[in-house]
Every structure is written in structure tokens, then in C-alpha cells.
# Entry
Amino acid sequence: MATKEYENYYVPAQSHWPIVGAVALFLIAIGAANFVSNMNNEESGVGGYLVIAGIGLVVYMLYGWFSNVINESMSGKYSHQMDNSFRQGMSWFIFSEVMFFAAFFGALFYARTLSVPWLGGAGNNEMTGAVLWPEFKAVWPLITTPGGTETTQMGWYGLPLINTVLLLTSSITAHFAHSALAKDNREGIKLWLGLTIVLGVVFLFFQVQEYAHGYSEEMQLYLTSGIYGSTFYLLTGFHGMHVTLGTIMLIVVFIRVWKGHFSSTNAFAFEAASWYWHFVDVVWVILFVFVYVI
Amino acid sequence: MTTENIATEQSDHDSHDEHHDHKMTGVKRWLYTTNHKDIGTLYLWFSFIMLLTGGALAMVIRAELFQPGLQIVEPDFFNQLTTVHGLIMVFGAIMPAFTGFANWMLPMMIGAPDMALPRMNNWSFWILPFAFGILLSSFFMESGAPNFGWTFYAPLSTTFSNGSTAFFVFAVHIMGISSIMGAINIVVTIMNLRAPGMTYMKMPLFVWTFFITAYLLIAVMPVLAGVVTMVLTDTYFGTSFFDAAGGGDPVMFQHIFWFFGHPEVYIMILPAFGIVSTIIPAFSRKKLFGYASMVYATSSIALLSFIVWAHHMFTTGMPLFGELFFMYCTMLIAVPTGVKVFNWVATMWRGSLTFETPMLFSIAFVILFTIGGFSGLMLAMTPVDFQYHDTYFVVAHFHYVLVTGSLFSIYAGAYYWLPKWTGHMYSDALSKWHFWCSLISVNLLFFPMHFLGLAGMPRRIPDYALQFADFNKWVSIGGFAFGLSQLIFLVVVIKCIRGGEKAAAKPWDGAEGLEWEVASPAPYHTFSTPPKID
# Structure
């Protein structure tokens, strides 16, 4: 039995999708670099167009590449072992994402427990406080920076709380969709998966509302509002990007469900998307606690 | 399914692959390839080109430092040279070379038909040339290349950086994506594609070291991506991560960077351990001494590497508790490393040794890497590090571990497997010239740097006080000689590809492993059916 699995391991023939993807990443990278450089010098350039072209090429590449993989999968070229490769690959990809967020959470914790108190004179830094910014009060959230920029705190009730409930609910509906798949209940999958997508989209909508509120005259919470604004926007922003990516994954899976793909035994893409969804959910819970509540 | 069916299906499958082998020729073969051997070759050539590029930058650095005073380059351009030299050697030369070894050898060593995710494998290679294209192109921009050192400390890389920082950031992002995908592929291949019967503790040590390295990569490359992103937003979007006036801290940059950076140095040395642990037993005609202890030592080095990062930062004014913690943890790494050195020596003890070129490089590795390890131990001591910090002593230390460590192991591995890759034996005489010229010149190049550092010469300066002149002259002569010696290797490889004595399937009588059971050169597809492991 074990031997048989190895003999069927599918090694694809040459593919042009990776090189298309490499060119796409190249366009995005030089485009984005050119764009931000010009933005700083207040010049106009081609950077933005290159980024758009690159993203278009990425979408084209993903469409073509995944079509190949889906066709190979549907025509039964894949073995149980291949399925394992995909699953392990996805798990390690999610782990790498965890570490990406860890860098930003690390920055948040460092600022809250070390650098801000030190600026206020904690530890052996009495002279830092006394000489550099004697007026500075070390509190979190850092409403007034040592440099004197003022801002306000984003409360945890209201939109963030609603968003937490939405995302937690969506994790549950995603799980129900998964259970429906295990029972081959097609209508159930469509219902629960559709609901998950709707919850994800509503979450993103509220997130945009929240940002608009933050950037309003009333709150004046900007990226440039010191370390509080920096950590707030980069953590929630990267989380939002991951929710967007997760929603796109779920939509692709949803379309495939309508096309009759997936069965209780062959559903890697479905499960990968749902793992990813649970992952963004967990990140949000940690984020909600440490960015908003505490 | 009966045996007969399996056999027919297998041959169908083979002829199917055969068909694809010959369909693509010329440049398309390399652009579209999903074959682990092709991709391994691409990685190895790319890394060698990068080695020569980064080496050329180093030659200019050494030419400027040949005598005191400013002769050849402006100080700002000098900073660009040291920065890009470091980035290219770390991310362009050493890491891709090891990925090249992984691609070529891992599937053959574990009896797998290919890497687990072959198309992604192609992608992770082909984004690399683009990343380095972006990085190198910044030399031709108005603002010049990045000039803040390969460690891009804030605020040098934020408040005081030149206009090409965004290009640097996105180039590093692409390198990171490449490394993560490559690492995922390695982990999945090893976990999922081992031939039946090859349990974890039966894997060659080479496979083990790449396995552990790949974990380190998946864990820390995203942190590098995070920290360059913060540099980008601090520079261009007005965030305050590394700006004290906004409540951030430039030292925080160093913490996040070195949380990536310290495991990174093990990413560049653990595979070297694997290569050397393969070669020393082969030419000692003995089993590797203490295989299990090697596995555990490698794992503990990897684990410890996550809790030692701040030993790069002893002079930043950390709390005393932090300094002590990081000092003791760092010194603890000497224990598993000592186990390894002991095991290599014990493997050679009473073996019937012969000194073919791979073995010469491996023995040089053991001795010279140990020198680099000992200077590391000196740097690990907080009080003395206050004297050594940012001097040429540090430069000597990490060049001993990276050049005579990692690079020598890469040469050892390349000579060891060249017959398998090309089907020809390399020119023994030329390879010995390469070894002896490299060995002598590399020590002339790096050993006096210890004295320079102890005497107080700071690193990353284009000019220096007169009392350092004599040593610097010798260092530069060693540098030029070492640089030229590497061209011998290029000649050896090209000659070996074009012809030479036919290599047997197993040209080294003491060698062990599945890769020697297939023909030389290795067929395009190996182990479509897994071999039987006893």
C-alpha cells in the first residue's frame, strides 16, 4: 500500500506560470518602490501603473496556475500523498504568516512595556526623561508623543466589538460549511460558505468605516500619530489585507462548490481556505485584546 | 492493483515524462522547468555569479583600504559597497548555493521523484534574479545604492537614508518570499516524500541539517519582511516605530532585526555542517561518529538561536539582566557546536584517510570554522565585547565562519558531487591549486583582521589611522589573491562540464547514500519508483 502511493506521485511537466509570476512580482516591486519614492518627492511617475499591471499579471497567473492544478486534481492525477504535500505546504505558509504578525506584535509589546516607559524615565533611564522630554508622560495608549503630536484613542466598543462578533461568527459558519462538506450536504455548504463570505465582506466594510472615523477631524488618529497610530494601523491594516485575501479564497471556493467541485474526501482547497480563515480570526482576537481593549 | 499493472503504469508514466524531457530545449527548458536538478543547477550558477559580483565589490573595498587616505572611492560610495557586498553574499551567494544543493541532492538522498511542489520550486528560483536586479540597479540611480550596512540599522535606513531605500525594501521582500517558498518545499519534501522505510533517524545527516534550516527560514524570514516593512513606513509614511520622538525606539529595530538575523547565521552554517558530515565519513572510510548526537546538536543549536539575538547589541545600553541572559545563552551554543567538532574529529580518528579535494576543503572547514567559533565565543562575553564591538575583530569573526565555514563547505560539496552532476571527474590538479591558493590567501586576508580589531580599527570606514597601514596592506593582498583563486574554480567547473574522465556511479569508494546508486551523470528523473530502504 505504502509503495503504491509513491509510484503515483505526480510530477508536473514544464509550466510557464512561475516565470509569469516572477515577472509580476518584479513589476509590483519596482512599481511600488518607484511609487513611494515619487510620493515622497511629490513627483509623478509610472510606478502606480506598474503595480496595477503587476497585480493584473498575478491574478492572471493565479487563475492559470490554479486552473492547471484543479484540472489535474479533477482528472484524478493526484494521490493521497500529493494531497498531504499541499496540506503541509499550506500549514507552513500559515505558520510563516503567524511569524509575520509576530514581528508587528513584537513591536507593539516592546513599545508598550519597554520603550515608552523608558522615554518617561523608567528603569535606569531617568536622565532620558529629564533631559530629552521632561514634560512627557509615559502612558498607553500614547495619546501625546514625546515630540508633542496629539491624537485620541480608538475605543473597543462600537465598530471593533461588532467586528469581533462578526469575525467570530464567521469562523463558526465556516466550520458549519466544513461539517456540511463532510456529510456531502451541498445545500448546507452553499448556505454556510455564503454566509461566511458575507460576514467577511461586512467586516471589511466596517473596517473601512473605522479607518474613516480614525482619520476624521474628530479623532485625528493618523499613521503619523506616533507609535500608537503606527502599531494600530499596521496591525489592523495587515490583518485587513489578510481578511481580504481570505475572502477572495472563500469566494473562489464558493464558485467551485457551485461548479460541483469537492467531495468529503477531496477538498484540499476548501480546507486550506477555511484554515486560513480561522487563522485571520485568531489573529483578530489577539489584536482586539492587545490593540483595543487592554 | 497487481504488480504487473504497477509496472505498466510506471513505464507509461516514464515515457510520459520522457516526452516532456525533450519537448523543451534552449532557454525555455530553464525558464519553465519543474525538474529539481535543473532548478538546483540554476540556483548554483546564480549563486556563483552573485559570489563573483559580491566579490568584485569586496575587491574595490580592499583596494581602497590598501593604504590609508582616500584614493579610489568616495566615503558614501564606500558605504554602498559594504552594504551591497553584505546583502549579496548573504542572500545572493550563500543561501541560494545551499538551496541549490538541497534541490539537487535531497530528492536523490531520500529516494523521492522530485521536490514536493515542483512548480513553486521554479517560482522560488526565478524571482531571485529579479530581486537582485532591483538591488543592483540602485547603483545606477541618482541617489546610489543603499548605504546603511547590510543590517540597515534605523535611523540610518530611515531618517538618514538615501532615495533608493524603497527599492532595497522591495528587493528584500522578494528575496524573503523566495526563501520561504524554498523552505516550505524542503520541509514538505522531507516530511512527505521519503522512500518507504527511511525513518527520520535513518535520513542522511545532510537531509537533517537542511530540514532544520528550512524550519528556521520559515520562522524568521517573515520577521525580516516585517522589519523592512516598518523601515519602509517609517521612511515614507511617517510612522514612528524607530523614532523616539513618536514613542518608538531605534533599538527596537535592532531587536526585531536580530531576531531574524541570529537564526539567519545558523541558516548559513547548519547546511555546511550537513555537507561536511557527509564528506568526512566518505574519505575517512568510517561511519559518521555519533549520528544521533549530531541530530540533537543541530536541533539544539537551532532552538538556542532564537534566544541569543541581543548578543549583537551589548553596547546599546540594555538592562544588565538582558546582557547576562544573552551572554549565557550564547555561550551555551558552544556546547552543541563542540559536540559537532568533536564528532568530526572522532570520525577521522583511526580512519583510513585520503585527501581528495572535497576532504581537503572539509578538513580546512573544521579547523578554520572552529577559529571563527572561538572568536565568536570571545565576542559573546559582554564585558570584552565592549572593546570588540564594531571593530575589525567582528569582521574577522564572521568572515571566518562564512567564508572558511559556509563557502568552504560549499566548495567541498561541489567537488564531492560534481562527478554526479556532470558525469565527469574534475581536474584534480587544478582543484588542488584552487584549494591551496584559497587556503593560504583566505588566512592572509582574514587572520590579520583579528589584530586590527583588537588594536581598535573600526569596521565600515574607508580610511584609517596610520598605525593600521601594514596589516591592511597584507589583508588587501590576501583579498586580491583570494578573489583571483576563485576563478580557478570557475575553470574547473567549466572543464568538468565539457568533458574529462568519465565518472563511475560511485566515484568515491567510501561514499554512502542513495545518490550514488544512480548513474553519473544522474538521469533527468530519478526514483520515479521509490527505492527499498533496509
